[in-house]
Structure formats: C-alpha cells, structure tokens
Amino acid sequence: MKLLVVEDEALLRHHLFTRLGEGGHVVQAVANAEEALYQAEQYNHDLAIIDLGLPGMSGLDLIRQLRSLGQTFPILILTARGNWQDKVEGLAAGADDYVVKPFQFEELEARLNALLRRSSGFTQSTIAAGPLVLDLNRKQATLDDAPLALTAYEYRILEYLMRHHQQVVAKDRLMEQLYPDDEERDPNVIEVLVGRLRRKLEGAHGFKPIDTVRGLGYLFTERCR
Ligand code: CA
Fold first, then answer.
1. Which tens digits make up the pLDDT trace of 163-218?
2. Among 14, 133, 205, 209, whose CB has the most other CB atoms within 10 angstroms?
3. Which residues have C-beta under 5 Å from ligand 1, the single-atom ion?
C-alpha cells in the first residue's frame, strides 16, 4: 500500500520510512504539513500517518485541510502521552485512530493494518477469492491450499487488485504501489508483472481472475471476501 508519513522528528521519520518499507509498503515521508498537502495532491495514498505536533501548520489543521479537500484515506495520528484532548480533537478533525508516543512499532503496524483492511471493506486478515487466499499480515498467497511463490512486486499488485476487486484499476495506480514517485516509472513493468501473475494463478486449474480493460487498466473479476 502507498503510505504518507508526516513526522518532523528526523529519526522517527526515518525509522517509520524504513520499517514500513520493509513491511511491503511504498512510503512517502515528509517533515511538515505543507509538503504533505503537496504529496497528497500529486499522488494517491492508501493511508496517512500524521504527527500532531508539527512546526508551522499543525497536524490537526493538516487533517482538517486534507478532509476539506476531499481526501478519504484513513488517517492514523501520532500524539504525545497524556494529551487526551489531542486524541479527541484529532478524531473529531477526521482522523480514524491514534497511537501514543513513544510506541512499539508492532502496535502502529497492527493499527495500520486494521485501518487498511476496514477501508477496503474486509474484516479478516485474509482475503479469499475462489481457490486463492491472501494472508495480509504475512504477505503470502496460497492457491488451492498450496503456497504460491510470488515476488514482492507481484504480491503488491495482486493485493491491490483484490482489495479493489470488481473495480477497474488504472495502470498508474498499480505503478504507485511499486514506486514512491514518478521518476522510476516504466508502464511496461506493470504489463510484465501482471503477465507473470496471470501465469502463476492459472497454474494447473486455469484460474483467471484478472481481466484487461483496454485503455483503462485491470479488473479483478472474482468476488473477494
Ligand atoms: Ca512532532
């Protein structure tokens, strides 16, 4: 998933960037609200992590601004211990959950995964479609109960398509799941990855859940639950 991290403490920002990246996410980490607004306008994020104590525009004002601009992605706030008013105000401003600093990364990750799951309409930590099951926590796929060997990029594409099942997903959106910004993008990469994914899913039993919608993108046709 593509995440926006807004944190002014350089060490924590770097830590979040690294750990979340290791967890299979594409992370854009910025130090202030102004930069966050710019990134949110340029790219499509699946979730934002916002520190409330920011220099310049506050985290609260950033959340209000994002919501008034029509951004609907889940927002997880980071707040200092004891500031219960901050939590209340943050949630009232449009945040969805909070983590109190200092925190264990595992707690942040668990809350983030829960928010991502709910925002795409799933209540379990797995997504199933016919013979295919994704384990969202372990980032693993099984087909007909056998482990399916996917590269990290193939997995990301598959998870994104399944989260948005029965919707046409543009190639650009998929590219955003692989690269943090425009520079390294090559649209052919998506075609190659989807081609490989299809061959792996087809396996022995001919499972073909990914359609091409010419000129628009890809469609995961199976119902996921
Ligand atoms: Ca801060």
1. 999 999 999 999 999 887 776 678 789 999 999 999 999 987 899 999 999 999 99
2. 209
3. 8, 51, 53
